[in-house]
User: Fold this.
Amino acid sequence: MTTKFERYKLEIPEVVRQANALAEELGFPLMPEGRPAGYKGLPSACIPEVGKLLSVLAAGYPNGKIGEFGTGAGVGTAWLLHGLPKNSKLISAEIDEKLVARTKELFAKYSNVEIRQGDCFEVMKNEMPFDLLFIDTGIRHLLTPENYGRITDMVKVGGKIVFDDLLPIELWLSDWDDLVDEKREFIFRNPRVIGTEVRTTATQVAIIATRVS
Assistant:
């Protein structure tokens, strides 16, 4: 007899399984519950709950242009691809040449996926604005009020920006009381977007923002 858990559990698409295997080979930690508070280790791969969210969002843009900053081992890319309409395009940028070479191999048979090597802003500037942009690389230092316009303009009006790997506020460490969360500041202090937090696991949050002006 099938249990409710088995019936409704999150299924992992084959392309994501392949990306997970590559992530393990390349040393990207697979953390099903997300990063613990204070984690300072190697970059971790996109968790399934965030991946499913990315698939759902990507599926909403037929004839769309989807961007990803930070390909990594391609796990997030694979989840975006899983939801990507056939007539839409996914472009992902990664600065590490080795990762670009391996992920290009992984997605070689998908004509609507392109992996680019170099600084995300430089190699993607001619593709902006996107319908959906998943920012999965360290740009916290750029999320300052004077850059809000530049970041917002990376998506179309009505387009969405997604951040992941955030810790729920109630789980912040005691010595984080005076910490400024640049991702949350960008979403909730930026008058040109409307954003909300989405709890992906008991200890992880993603943020989605829609550009309104």
Remarks:
- Strands lie at 65-69, 89-94, 113-117, 130-135, 155-166, 193-201, 204-211.
- The first strand starts at residue 65 and ends at 69.
- The first helix runs from residue 4 to 8.
